[in-house]
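Late entry, zinc ion complex.
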Amino acid sequence: MKKILIRNGNILTASENFIGDILIEGEKIKAIGSSLPETDCEVIDASGLTLMPGGVDPHTHFDLPMGKTVSSDDHYSGHKAAAFGGTTSVMDFVSFDRPTLEESITLWQEKAYPKAAVDFSFHMNLSKWNEEIKKELSLLVKWGMPSIKVFTSYNGRLRLQDGEIFSAMQQAKELGLLTLLHAENGDVIEILTREALDRGHLSPEWHALTRPAWGAVESTLRGIALAAQSGAALYIVHMNAAGEVDQLQYGRENGLPIIGETCPQYLFFTIDHLRRNDGAKWVCSPPIRSVEDNQRLWEGLAQGIIQTIATDHCPFFYDGTKPILYEGKEIAIPGKELGKGDFTQIPNGLPGVGDRLPILWNYGVRSGKISPNQFVALTSTNPAKVFGLYPQKGALIPGADADIVIWDMERRVDYGVQYAQHRTDYNLYEGWELVGYPIKVFLRGKIIVDDGKWFGKAGDGKFIRRLAGVNVI
Ligand code: URP
Ligand code: ZN
Ligand code: ZN
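Prediction complete; structure with ligand written out below:
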């Protein structure tokens, strides 16, 4: 079996920081220590460099059909972009687009398996509910994807009623599934959107104005209350509003098994970005909000109220009529231009899977908002723990998968669309200056990114089966 010794790196984990060596044997970490013997192995000198576990992004949407288009990264291009940004495991949402769970998951497997370039798992969107579906839910345990997402918005499409969510949570509790919640008020959004259109309010900022923060706050509390009454654990996805952090804190202080996730877009951007001429670039659901919301979310992360940072990566072209070159081929996919003159037609979602780690390192850790250990915990170890991937993923310990990222903390990068590897024509962090960037990325012992070069390929990524049973951290 091939052995690689990474020597003298600054090893950074969720709880430690020390100089040491990591020995990789085949796909696994064999040993961690100092002055490990160099016999029969390739040696990489990591002096002055930092070693971290590969990032785990628990919330992505690859190849997701949306209205008249589809998210522009598929399970190859999105995985490749993730890898360049230091993320080696991603978790994607299966749309419940076929009559049964089994058919819907099979379709997603057919899309993902041949293209996967990093390791991956799935969550199931539970956007319908009846006795048949209830019976079929145990399939998620059998197929190693024990998590469901429920929605309190997207009326007539993805939303379940409160009683249905409660009943699904009871079943989730029974089977050991983790329930993920998209918290917005679908009824209020429906009324405000109709009113905005009637009054001719058509610009992107109305996307946020028709989806108020109070709807997110009350449905977060509603979800927490439904979880408490059903005995189920709850994971609140893409937290975006200050009041949601308060609700999460309240629930956790009351001993409830609740986990919170936020995403970089809710930490760095506000409704003012939607007011720009190119505001459509920032249209996502839930919407980006205010500086006060940004600040409370940072506080929630620093104080341990929120446990994970994902991306909700769901990219679209800004101008999908103009092709970009991707791996030497021209590609154009309809995007945000579909909503020119009508915010309700703008495909919802943003690129981010490759941006997450370098942006957060620079504008979270280097700016003093979170510590280096918190950075690893929030972006790798905690999501791995919550979703049953730990210690195979999210850990630098003997026996773990050798998913290792080597960072050069001196590397200066003018970030933007030319640097990021997403298959789209824009980047939200255009022109942001970075000091510190991943330079080598190992996926189960194989180097897939080396100093800007790509050595991964479609099919390298494996579906990671997860066990039922909820790990609350
Ligand atoms: O705008 C977004 N986030 N699109 C993806 C769907 C979702 O609700 O996460
Ligand atoms: Zn959502
Ligand atoms: Zn999402």
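The CA atoms of residues 28 and 401 lie 4 Å apart. Will revisit in the morning.
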